[in-house]
Amino acid sequence: MTKILVLEDEASIRSFIMINLKKNNFDIVETSSGEEALEKLDDTVDIALLDVMLPGISGFEVCKRAREQYPALGIIMLTAKGQEENKIEGLELGADDYIVKPFSPKELLARINALARRLNIVDKVAVVEQNTDQIVTGKFTILPEERKLLKDGVEIELTPIEFSLVKYFMENPNKAIHRDEILNNVWGYNYVGDFKIVDVNIRRIRQKIEDDPSNPKYIEKVWGYGYRWWGGGE
Question: Which residues neighbour 197 within 8 Å (Cβ) at sequence distance 6 or greater?
Answer without folding.
Answer: 91, 97, 98, 183, 187
